[in-house]
Amino acid sequence: MKFLPSGYQIPDPLPWPTIAGPLAAAEDSLARLDERLAKSPIREGWIARTHFTDACASLWLDGELVHLEDLVLHDAGMDVRPPTHELTLAHAVLRARRRIAEAKPDWALSAAGLAGLRGRGGQGEAEAGRGNRMEGEGSFGGDDEGADAADHDPQLSIIETDPHLAAAFAAVDAANARAERRISNEIRVRSKRDPLIYDPDWDEEGRLDRWRAVLNHTSGLPPTLAAAIATVAWDAIEPLEHTPWLGRLLAASALRDRGKTRAHLPCMHAGLKLIPHERRRPRDAAARLAVQLEAMTAAAAAGLKDHDRWLMTRNLLARKLDGRRATSKLPALLDYVLTRPIVSAGMIAAELSITPRAAQNLVAEFGLREATGRGRYRAWGVL
After folding, report:
1. Interval 16-36: pLDDT, tens
2. Residues 232, 271: contact at Cβ < 8 Å?
3. CA 258 to CA 222: how far, in whole Å?
4. What per-residue confidence (pLDDT) applies to 205?
5. Could you tell me if 169 and 89 lie in one domain?
């Protein structure tokens, strides 16, 4: 074992006889899926749909059931019932995945990215703003150069001689000062944690630093093995008290940062869901790494099958667009239905700016499959 001051020990030497096969399979599967998506006409739709499935899988791994259609409707603001706590958590995972996927590959693992994903982005932005203001004051406040500029600037001379204008600028400065104090107070309130909810001894900053030390130690390893080690280390260190699901999203972001997946963000939760429950948490360190590598392979294989099925369905539906007028809404409906696991009449109406009745007529023309089996609150999708 290679000791690190982090609460997790990287096996040293690495158990190559156990992980060599799963490592090669994971590297190959992720590369094939990424290459297929890079040139795919439904790449954006595939990414949008897998965000939903991976978010539901993250709650499933924690023993919570969130229906895919409920998450889709909640994301669209069209819930058919009050959202549950589990649904709210799944939506938080969905938003985090989208934020990581839309940002630069190295953003999530940076200090600003981690602060934003933990809900502390405002504090970092406020500190950066204060630093910029201090630099500005150092450049222009009260030195000889600023005095010379005031002597040569006629507008500054007018401000000094016009009492009304000077009073207006003083009011603006006072308003800015009040706004800055209010922001500082809000940040101070947010930083105070309720001891009934948060453990006072849970040092998140220190644990995050220890986890990042493990991640930095894997810089010379293959990307998939580094992501597997990062995932296992996150489970061992438990950096964040209430967001354990963030570790696999950061591991997926590490694969993007290392250039292994350039066209998509891997679905680590969905892949681990495909591993049998009895094999998901082995005691042996080598077996834990092998399971994470197998999860990557399973996620890539499932993603490849889904892509080919959705692409074939798109090609079949596209034949129904032949001979349509240029103002037809069917092409827009085809593009939209590929970005969501299911769509309702209200969602289609809001997206295409049509009435719900017209949305149902378009669905009937396409012949989309009804996904809920209900008479009311019906939804359709490309399954």
Report:
1. 999 999 999 999 999 999 999
2. no
3. 9
4. 85
5. no
Peptide bond into 13 cis (omega under 30): yes
Residue 377 DSSP class: S
What share of the chain in percent tops pLDDT 90?
47
The CA distance from 345 to 22, in Å, is 44
Is the Cα torsion angle 366, 369, 375, 376 positive or negative in sign? negative
Asked if residue 142 is part of any domain, the answer here is: yes
Query: Any idea which of 85-89, 177-181, 266-270, 337-341 has the lowest mean pLDDT?
Result: 177-181
Task: Say whether both 55 and 106 belong to one domain.
Answer: yes
How far apart CA 269 and CA 338 sit, in angstroms, is 22
Are 342 and 72 a contacting pair, CB within 8 Å?
yes
Does residue 287 contact residue 270 with C-beta atoms inside 8 Å?
no
* Burial of 360: CB neighbours in 10 Å, binned 0-12, 13-18, 19+: middle
By residue range, what is the domain housing residue 134?
122-191
Total count of domains within the chain: 3
Residues 75 and 126 grouped into a single domain: no
Q: Are 265 and 253 in contact, with CB atoms under 8 Å apart? A: yes
The CATH number covering residue 370 comes to 1.10.10
Classify each residue of 152-164 as buried b or exposed e, where b means 16 or more C-beta atoms within 10 Å of its C-beta.
eeeeeeeeeeeee
- Could you tell me if 272 and 350 lie in one domain? no
From residue 246, alpha-carbon distances to 174, 239, 333 in Å are 41, 10, 33
Question: In a 10 Å sphere around its CB, with 0-12 CB exposed, 13-18 middle and 19+ buried, how is residue 252 labelled?
Answer: buried
Residues 6+ apart with CB under 8 A from 61: 269, 272, 273
pLDDT band at 149 (very low <50, low <70, confident <90, very high): very low
Judged against a pLDDT cut of 50, whether residue 215 lies above it is answered with yes
